Structure formats: C-alpha cells, structure tokens
From TrEMBL, chain A:
It comes from Gramella jeungdoensis. This is ABC transporter ATP-binding protein. It comes from the Bacteria. PANTHER family: ABC TRANSPORTER ATP-BINDING PROTEIN ALBC-RELATED (PTHR42939). It holds the Pfam family ABC_tran. GO terms for molecular function: ATP binding; ATP hydrolysis activity.
UniProtKB/TrEMBL annotation, chain B:
It comes from the Bacteria. Keywords: Membrane, Transmembrane, Transmembrane helix. It comes from Gramella jeungdoensis. The chain crosses the membrane at residues 20-36, 42-67, 88-113, 119-143, 155-181, 226-249. This is ABC transporter permease.
Automatic annotation (TrEMBL), chain C:
Signal peptide: none annotated. It comes from the Bacteria. Residues 40-152, 153-342 form the Periplasmic copper-binding protein NosD beta helix domain. It holds the Pfam family NosD. It comes from Gramella jeungdoensis. The gene is nosD. This is Nitrous oxide reductase family maturation protein NosD.
C-alpha cells in the first residue's frame, strides 16, 4: 500500500532520513518506533506531503505522492499537538473540516463516545489539553479512509478515553484499515501493533512482528527489547 | 481556498484584537471629525496615522497569526487540499479582516459626519484604498518572514525590524543620501527610492492629492512629469499592486520547498 | 465783424463735433482709415457690423471709435492695428483680432501714446500680441474688456494691458488670459487695478515694475506662472484679492522683490506652490490674509526686514514658512496656524505655548529640493520634532508667541 524508495532528507546539516526504504502492506497496525530524533515524524510528514524529501519517491496505492494532494482524501492524520483556532467553537471546527473534505463522516458517534457533547459550543481556546486531544481524535476518525496515521495519539488522554481510543483503533483494523502509529508508550504497542518498524540513523533498522523483535534481541520484555535496539545507537 | 479564507476570516473577526483595532479607528474617526470639525485636517492626520499604523498592525497580525496557527495549519496540510490554497486562504483572511476593521472603523464616523456631501470624499476613499493596500502588502511581507524563520521570537523580531526599517530608517537613509549627494541630479534617484518602499509610495499617492501644489514646486523635469499628470497616479497604483503580487508570489515559491 | 467770424467758426465746430461717421461695406465710407481721414476732433466713427481687414490705423484726433455688435477689425497677423496719439478719446465695443507678432516691435491691438483722459471699454481683443499698449499717458480708464492671446512661450507673447510711464489709471473689470503678463505696469503711479480676472497667463497675472503708490484689490489671479509680481516698487496696497492655483516650479501667488512699505490684507492665497515669495522686502504689513493649502504659505529669501504678520490664517499648507537665513527681523503675532498643537489653559483664545512656523524639514528642502518627496514621512516628523525641542538650524527667535486657537476668517 505504501512504498518509500530511497528517501533522503536533510534539515540543514542534520541528516534525518538517509536512503530509507520501507514497504507497508495493506491492513494491520504498524508501530513506527525509534529513539528521539530518529525521523519518525519526518517519515510520516513525508508521506503526508508536509516535508518534502531531498531524494527518493513515495508511493501510496501505487501512485507517487510528491507534489500531489488529492491522495490525502484517502488518509486520516492525527497530529501530535492539538492546537486549533481559539475563536472557533468545537462544532464549527468539525463542520469546517467536514466542509473541507466532502466525504461521509460519523462524528456524532465519536462525540458521544468521548463525551464531547457539552463542549460543542465552547470555544477551542477555552478547552483543556486533553479535551482538545479528544476533538483531535474525533476529527481524525470521523472519516472513512483506508489509511490512518496517528502521531502520539495518547498524549493527555484520561484512562477511559484511552480505552475508547484503543477500541477505536482495533475496530478500524478489523475493518481492514491500515494504521500507522508512532508512540513512546510500549504498552500500547504491545497491545495493538501487528508489526514494528524501528528507525535508527535514518534507516529502517528493524521491521517485523513483536515476537520476531523479542527473538532477535533475545528479550522477553518489549520495553527492554526496544531499549536494547536503541542502546546500539549509543554504542 | 475560499473555505479556508472563510474560516480564518471568521476566526479573526471574533478575535479581541480585531475589535480593539476596529474600535481604535472608530474612536479616532469620531474624535478627529467631531472634536475638530475640519475634514481636511482630519484627512491629513489620518494619513499620518494610516501610513505608519496599518503596516505595523498588518505585520504584527501576520506573524502572530502564522505562528499561533502553526499546529492547526499542520492539520490542514494533512487534509486533501493544495498547500497554496491553505496559505492564500489564511493570507486573504487576515488581510480582509484587517481591511474591514479599517474601512468600517473610519467609514462609520465619516458617514455619520456627512462625508458624502463633503468634497473630501475622494481624498478619503484614497486613504482607505491606500490603507487596504498597506494591509495586503505588509501581511504578505510578514508571512514571508514567518515562513522563512522557524523561531517565533526571531520571526517576530525580524518583522518588527522590517516595519521599523521601511517606516523610519529607510527615509532617514534616503534623506541623508539626498543631502550628501546634493550636487548630483537626484530626481530619478529619489523617484526610484520612493517606489522601492511601499510606505513611501503610499505617502506619495496621498500627497499627490493633498500637497500637489508643494510637490510641483520641485524643479526636476522627471519629477514634474511624474507628479504633474495622472501618469504619476497610475504608475504609483500599479507599483503598489506589484508590491502585493511580488511578496505573494514569493510566499508561493517558498511554500513549494517548505517543510512543516 | 471779428465776432461774427468767431461765431461762425464756433458754429462750424459745433456741427462738426456732433458729426457721426458711419462705416460699413455698403456705406459711402468703407474703411476705417477713410473715416479717420475726414473726421475732426469730437467726431464719432461708428463701425457697423462687418469685418474690417485693416492694420496700422494711426489716429491723432480726439474722436470716439465705436463698434456695432458684430463689428470686427482683423489685423491678419500683419502688425499693430490701432495707434492713438491724441487726448480725450474713447474706444468702445470693438472686437479686434489677430495682432502680428514680432521679436523687435511691440505690436498691439490698441497702442496709446502720450494721451490724457481716454476711455477704452467693452472691447474684445483676441489673438493679440500686446493687447493695450499705453505709453506716457495719464487719466485713462480701461474697463470691461476681454483680452486674450494664444501664445505658447514667454518670448513670443506680449502683455494684455501694458502701461509704461503712466499715472492715475483705472483698470477694472477686465478679463485677461493666454498672455505673457495679464497686466503690466512699469513706471506707473497713483493707479488702481480692481475686479479684474487674470488667468492662465504664461508669466504673471499682474506685474508691477518701478511703480509706486498703486492699489489693487478684489482681483482674481488664477493659474498663472505667478499670480502677481511686485518688483522694485514702493507703497503698494494689495487687498481682497484671490490668488489661486498658481502651480509650478517657479510659481507664486504673490512674488515680492525689492519692495518697500506695502500693505497686504484680506487676501486669499489658495493652493499655490508658494503663497508669497519675498526677496528683499522691507516694512510690509501682512494682515488678515488666509493661506489655504499652499505648498509653502510664505517663503522668505534673504534681506527681508520688518515684515509684520498679524492675524493671518495659515491653514493646511504643506509647509507654513521657509526661511533661508538665520537672521530674522520679522514679526509673527496672533496668527492662526492649523498645525499648532498647543493648548489654551486660561481660555483666552491664545495658545499658551509659542508656535514655530519654520520646520527643520523646510530648511532641508531649501538646501536639497529633492528631499520634498519625504514630505509628511514619519522620519521627517521625528527630525522636525527634535528641532522644535531644541532649534539648531532654524532661527530660534522665529516664532509666534501668541498663536490663535481659532481662525480669523470663517469664510473658508
């Protein structure tokens, strides 16, 4: 479904992606992991067209995405930081995004799920960080797309919302969606991910199932397995 | 683009600062007209304020809006919309809402005063047109700065510096070079130097109406040809339009390579 | 016998003086020159409707030359048309067109030489080189005429009413346009010029040279090279005139050069490049004038002493006053300045802080005219302000200590 071919990206002198190749098949949950600054967000942003690679090609559903924008109609993205125009109300924002994207949406259900009903007419500037993140999640999941990209989706969520989120992700997976998640919370990875993509030095250092990772690093605990991978960077 | 424009505009129109800005002009208009009772004097005072203040406010609003809505812009960027349209929508949203504050803020007191009967209507509309141009120019310039500067504080600093340079320092350098090179023919130089600064250009446009008798006192042939005819007005207006188009064009060029 | 002859001659004279000579294409007398040939002192020559293509008509008899409506004398650009060299004559209701141009001879529609007691009225002079050229004459009345030219340059054009060496002239209710100077006085004294309109002339609307003790009032000078130029003259009174729209690099509402003891009051100077330009003016009182939206209201260029400006209104001029010297011997008091930003705490109608009409910027513009493009720029406001706080370049005693809070004239 997604192919990254020889992606290079530099920010000034700092090389973030260095000839990265990655192939993601349709269906399932993929956790993109890696130490801080390993290029997880950059990779995702390249796919989203927000960061423009210096070299290489990215294909989504068989077509190159560079300099295009129409393909984004078939993917949903949850950004890391939820910050919205402070003078719009929640419902206005939802309507705006719907307006921008004339596609079927099921926001009602999600609003119900995250208990946002009473916030609908509040201004976004007056909401807490957690509530904003819930709005963020609603905006992401309300459209029916084949690819869902979640950048640190758990930030600021209370335990109940977290449970709902996990259920939501699971449900989408069962619907045959492809889901990319970046996170530092290993329990989430362990619980949800079908496959792990581990980035290091701007390349894919590991790609495979959790079991395969545990086996490779000879470590039963995922957290330690990951730490083991990261420590190689410092070695 | 229109959708983005609509929401940026909507967002800004509800912001406290738009109201402050609007009310400032409203009060200014009322004070100048009703305490002073002299439309000509009011127009001159307004000119002095508009050519300094609209660029400043345009600059500040521009950078502020850019940096404050950075995360939201990212959300928009992930939507199936062309980048260009997102930024042009935001740009137009800011420029139009600022222009609306200006036009309504000053327009209401002038209408109440009975401007339509007064002969100052032309000067007054020129003021508003120039004010609108300055909004569009300086929002575009500040967006250029913001797009090129990741650091918010730095971006803000550069933007204010740009305003200070164009509003004050430029004229200082200009005047000093005129005085130093007094012995050389300077009329082409001074005309070009005027064109290169949108604030100076706007000032000249208004002067063409208010102080034409003084401007004609100048001997240089190029100068007189320029100021003496409708040609001057036409050229100034078109260059003002260029001052909008070029920064907007550069925004779009910058966007093609920009990483968010 | 002697008395009988005398009586006879008196009778003859009487009948002749009452004589009217009609001229027209069907009359017995067909040309003006013929009519003049047979005319005696006191006769009236009546030109009936028609075009008379004549020029160089020399008249040295005290007669009246009167035209019917539609009587036109066409000089066909050949030279001067009428030359009067007599006392007690009248010219009325003539239309004279197409005076020849020359770089050496001053051709005029009507030239008057050494005349006393004459009247020129209700005439239309078109496409003239000089209109009326009056030399060594006195007690003339010139009224209700319209004089115009179509010349393009100063050298190829003449003046509308040109008086050289005259006195006790009255020039009023004339309209003059498209000439070099509308009205030109050289060595003319004790004369008045009023209610004339002089416009679109290449040089001056009204011009005095070496002419003392004259008055002009209630005239309109519009869109001339300069409205009025008063040079090398004494005791001129100027009041209730309108000087407007005199635009250009050397354009003034009123140009004063080497003049003494003048009174200038109740005039309106509106939208001129320079309202009043003074060089070498001494003992001049400027009272109750209005300076509205001029480039410079007043420009003083050297050697001006004891000029007193009281009760004038300075309104919305780009620059109120320009001074090119640091020596200052003129007085400004009780004027209204629209730029004044002071306050009046004791409410006596007079501002509590003095007003300084000379700004640093006007000093700079004097040195570097191109700097004018920076008019009303923020930087200029800043340097003006600093100069106001501590004068360095401008005369620090040049100020109006009692600026008025309200303007004197409500008319504008």
């Amino acid at each position: 479904m997604i192919q990254f071919n020889n992606i290079h990206k530099r920010f000034g002198k700092l090389t973030v992606l260095d000839g990265l190749d990655l192939d993601i098949k349709k269906g399932g949950i993929f956790a993109v992991l890696g130490p801080n600054g390993s290029g997880k967000t950059t990779l995702i942003k390249c796919l989203l067209g927000m960061v423009i690679p210096n070299k290489g090609d990215i294909r989504f559903e068989g077509k190159s995405v560079l300099k295009k924008w129409e393909y984004r109609d078939n993917l949903n993205y949850l950004p890391q930081i939820a910050n919205f125009p402070p003078n719009l109300s929640v419902i206005e924002l939802i309507n705006m995004v719907k307006n921008l994207r004339p596609k079927n949406s099921n926001e009602e259900e999600l609003i119900q799920l995250f208990g946002l009903k009473s916030f609908l007419n509040k201004k976004l500037g007056n909401l807490s960080g957690g509530t904003k993140q819930k709005v963020n999640i609603v905006l992401t999941f309300m459209f029916d797309s084949d690819l869902i990209i979640l950048d640190e989706p758990t930030t600021g969520l209370d335990p109940i919302a977290l449970i709902h989120l996990k259920e939501l992700i699971q449900k989408e997976k069962d619907n045959g969606k492809t889901i990319l998640i970046t996170t530092h919370i290993m329990s989430v990875v362990e619980e949800l991910a079908d496959e792990i993509v581990f980035l290091l030095d701007g390349k894919i250092y590991f790609k495979g199932s959790i079991d395969a990772l545990k086996k490779q690093t000879d470590n039963e605990n995922l957290e330690h397995a990951i730490a083991n991978l990261i420590s190689k960077q410092y070695a | 683009m229109l959708k983005i424009l609509k929401y940026s505009f909507y967002d800004l129109m509800r912001s406290r600062w738009s109201y402050v800005y609007f009310i400032f002009y409203l009060i200014l208009g009322f004070v100048l007209l009703f305490l002073n009772n002299d439309v000509n004097k009011a127009v001159i005072t307004l000119m002095n304020i508009i050519i300094v203040l609209t660029p400043l406010i345009g600059t500040i609003f521009g950078v502020m809006y850019y940096y404050n809505s950075r995360e939201f812009t990212e959300l928009l960027l992930a939507q199936p919309i062309n980048r260009k349209k997102i930024f042009m929508g935001q740009y137009l949203g800011i420029s139009i809402s600022l222009t609306l504050s200006l036009v309504l803020g000053l327009g209401i007191p002038f209408l109440l005063y009975g401007l339509l009967k007064s002969a100052a209507i032309f000067n007054f509309s020129l003021l508003l047109i120039v004010g609108a141009f300055l909004n569009f120019i300086f929002v575009a310039l500040s967006y250029n700065i913001a797009l090129s500067t990741e650091n918010k504080i730095k971006g803000f600093g550069y933007a204010i510096l740009m305003w200070l340079f164009l509003a004050v320092i430029y004229d200082g350098i200009f005047l000093i070079s005129l005085v130093i090179f007094n012995d050389y023919p300077l009329d082409k130089f001074s005309l070009i130097a005027t064109m290169l600064n949108p604030i100076d250009l706007s000032r000249i446009l208004i002067l063409l109406k208010l102080d034409i008798s003084a401007l004609l006192g100048y001997t240089g042939a190029v100068f007189r040809k320029f100021f003496g005819t409708g040609f001057g007005m036409l050229v100034s207006m078109s260059i003002l339009i260029f001052w909008v188009i070029i920064p907007v064009f550069r925004i779009n060029q910058k966007l093609k390579k920009k990483d968010f | 016998m002697h008395t009988k002859i005398l009586l006879f001659f008196l009778f003859i004279t009487f009948t002749i003086s009452a004589k009217q000579i009609e001229v027209c294409s069907n009359c017995t007398i067909k040309t003006i020159k013929e009519a003049i040939e047979i005319a005696e002192d006191g006769d009236e020559i009546y030109l009936k409707k028609g075009i008379y293509k004549e020029n160089n008509i020399i008249i040295n008899k005290s007669i009246s030359l009167i035209g019917e409506e539609g009587a036109v004398i066409d000089g066909e650009d050949a030279g001067g048309i009428i030359i009067f060299e007599a006392d007690n004559f009248t010219i009325r209701n003539l239309k004279i067109i197409n005076v020849g141009m020359s770089y050496t001879i001053d051709y005029a529609a009507i030239k008057v030489i050494k005349a006393t007691n004459f009247t020129i009225e209700d005439c239309i002079l078109e496409n003239v080189f000089f209109g009326l050229l009056i030399e060594k004459s006195k007690k003339g009345i010139i009224r209700n005429n319209s004089i115009s030219g179509t010349r393009k340059s100063e050298a190829s054009s003449g003046n509308g009413i040109h008086i050289w060496d005259g006195s006790e002239m009255e020039v009023y209710n004339n309209e003059l346009y498209g000439l070099r100077d509308g009205i030109y006085f050289e060595f003319v004294k004790k004369s008045v010029v009023f209610e004339n309109t002089s416009r679109e002339n290449i040089r001056y609307g009204l011009h005095f040279m070496f002419s003392n003790n004259n008055i002009y009032h209630h005239n309109i000078f519009r869109n001339n090279g300069a409205g009025v130029a008063v040079m090398f003259s004494k005791f001129i009174t100027m009041h209730n005139n309108i000087f407007e729209l005199n635009w250009g690099s050397a354009s003034y509402g009123l140009l004063l050069k080497e003049i003494y003891d003048a009174e200038i009051y109740d005039n309106l100077f509106q939208e001129n490049t320079i309202g009043i330009n003074g060089e070498g003016c001494t003992r001049i009182n400027y009272t109750n004038n209005t300076f509205l939206r001029n480039g410079w209201a007043i420009k003083i260029a050297g050697a001006c002493y004891t000029n007193i400006f009281v009760n004038n209104d300075f309104m919305h001029n780009s620059l109120d006053l320009s001074y090119n010297t640091k020596i200052h011997d003129n007085k400004f008091d009780n004027n209204y300045w629209s730029e004044y930003t002071g306050y009046d705490l004791d409410n006596d109608g007079i501002g509590d802080v003095p007003y300084r009409p000379v700004k640093l910027f006007s000093y700079v513009v004097n040195q570097t005219p191109e700097a004018l493009v920076l008019l009303r720029s923020l930087f200029v406001d800043i340097i003006n302000f600093s100069e106001k706080v501590s004068p360095v370049f401008t005369p620090d005693n040049l100020m109006d200590s009692n600026p008025l809070m309200k303007k004197n004239n409500d008319s504008i």
